[in-house]
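Sequence in, structure out. Go.
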Amino acid sequence: MDDRDRTQENLRLLGQVDHAVPEELDRILASLSAEASTGLPSAVHLLAVGLASAGRMDEAIAAFRSAIERAPDRLEFRLNLAVAYVRVGQVDLAAATLDRTAALVDAGQVRLTGADQEQIRRAVQRRRDELAAWVRWRDDQVRLTRLRVGMLRERLAHGEGTANDRVQLATALLRSRHDSSTETLAEAAAVLEAVRAVEPRHVEALERLAHVYALLNDDRCDVVLRELEAVEPNSAVLRAFTVSDQDAAHHFKTMRARATALFELTITRGPETEAALTELRAIVRQAPENREYRGLLMFAEHVNGNVAQAMALAELQDARTDLSHAEHFNLAQVFWGQDEAQGRRHLTAAYQKASSAEERRDVEEMLVHLSERRR
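Output:
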């Protein structure tokens, strides 16, 4: 099969992604991945598009960045990376990508087949306009959600709220959880537990509560799912949580233990490393909201020299406002080689959040180690 036929075949496979069943999707992405392993920029870009279409955004972003590293002059690679950043809520990174692209257009350093310089400039501006419109819409939605949260909180504080008001408040809190995830999820759980205490057969409250406990990786999710099964065995939420007839609590514990074991294999850099990385990536895809798994994968990619993948995950973690000492500590090491200022910022935060003299000493020693490595 020559290059043209291979490209056509890849494009055909790409067109099937949106409608593929899981088994078929895995086959398609495996085929695109095999082509991308050749290192050809267009093949890596096609894989990135396929991953994005499949909703595997962390991997898509890493692949887009890899394609850009291989062909920094290709405009469509940069525009699609900006779209991927928007899809994961990284608006600042999307804007920075478009600003950088605009600068390269002005310098004549990007190209688009069959287009002149002015057409290229207009294409970038269209994407920037789309981003600005999306940001305005998002900000309006955030304001409306916050107003609704405030109104419902006030109603409940005055003793006027119903069970449905509490469910609506929890739903609004879930929509706004990017502001302060852990605290917001904890509030949502408390609100829903109040409904459960008074109306234990309230289906929507149980469904929302199961979702919240799953995001918190809380064992109580299993108890709530059993109650939901007794009340509404045909619940779509219940079906989504059913994992090979295992109860959810056992599943969470098993997955966490497996993720930790895989991480330990990846940092040994032995013969099982690549297989462990592949499985750890799959776990992150199954639980995209779980920051612990993402953190393990980020550091595993970093240790194994997969810079683009590690940085994509680091940027997602970096957007959070409630990072722990350990998370700041690991982010510092990942960022240091690409953005020393970011690395130092995270080391400073790790020091400030240290809970013991030993943790502060670890930060000091890491600063010395990273500084020496730079020389």
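Check: The chain has three domains: 3-126, 162-242, 250-374. The CA atoms of residues 108 and 117 lie 8 Å apart.
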